[in-house]
Amino acid sequence: MANIKILHNPRCSKSRETLKLLEEKDIAVDIIEYLKTPLTEQEIRSLYTKLDLENVTQMMRVKEPEYKAAGLNSADTTDDQRFAAMVQYPKLIERPVVINGDQAKIGRPPESVLDIV
């Protein structure tokens, strides 16, 4: 069986809903509370590749105050600056994220993760 992981924030309703959905389908998951155990920049870059998104901001919570505080709303912000900000402020990473091997999906809506499990 694949080693499925979820980047989880127990305070987030979408994160809780996604975890519950996986559990209801008897899908075993490793829970990573990424606010308690932050990801490295290399792990975040790898996650971005697995998510197969068009741009880095699609994996970020752009409405968080830290996004603006880090100056990321400037048009000339680089991806390197965005990755560094996600290391510094883990809450900027969109949640939840389910990872299965070389694929990952953001659980918004929660059912979208079922494509990869």
From TrEMBL:
EC number(s) per entry: 1.20.4.1
SUPFAM superfamilies: Thioredoxin-like
InterPro entries for this protein: Arsenate_reductase (IPR006659), Arsenate_reductase-like (IPR006660), Thioredoxin-like_sf (IPR036249)
GO molecular function, one term: arsenate reductase (glutaredoxin) activity
Swiss-Prot/TrEMBL catalytic activity: [glutaredoxin]-dithiol + arsenate + glutathione + H(+) = glutathionyl-S-S-[glutaredoxin] + arsenite + H2O
PROSITE patterns, sorted: ARSC
Pfam family, one: ArsC
Membrane spanning residue stretches: none
Keywords: Oxidoreductase
Gene3D superfamilies for this protein: Glutaredoxin (3.40.30.10)
NCBIfam families given in the database record: arsC (TIGR00014)
Family: Belongs to the ArsC family.
Protein name as catalogued: Arsenate reductase
Organism expressing this protein natively: Alteromonas gilva
Lineage: Bacteria, Pseudomonadati, Pseudomonadota, Gammaproteobacteria, Alteromonadales
Encoding gene per record: arsC
